[in-house]
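Check the record.
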Amino acid sequence: MSEPLRCRPPATPTVQIDNDDLRVTRWDFPVGGETGWHRHGWKYVVVPVSAGTMTLELPGGGTAEVQLTPGTSYERAAGTEHNVVNTGAMPFSFVEIELKAFPG
C-alpha cells in the first residue's frame, strides 16, 4: 500500500533489541504524531510507558480509539494493518515487542 502525503508529524521509533527471536522498539508520539500505514509481519505485544489516547486508522476507512494505561499490555496478531495516531492532548510512548517465531 502506498502511503499518502503526511500532514502529521512522524512518531519516532527507537529499536532497542533486534535478534533472531524478537525485535523491541520504543515508539514516541508527539501530539498528532503517527506511525504511517504499516502491516505487522509478526505477532506482537505493546507495553505502554505513558498514558495516552491513540486512534487506529484501519483498512477500509474505519477507526478504533484505544486508551493506553502505563504497564497494561496487550497483544495483536501478525498481519495487523493500521496507522497509529496520537489523538490525545499529551505526548505518549509505548514499547512494542515483535515475536519473530510467529510470522504472518
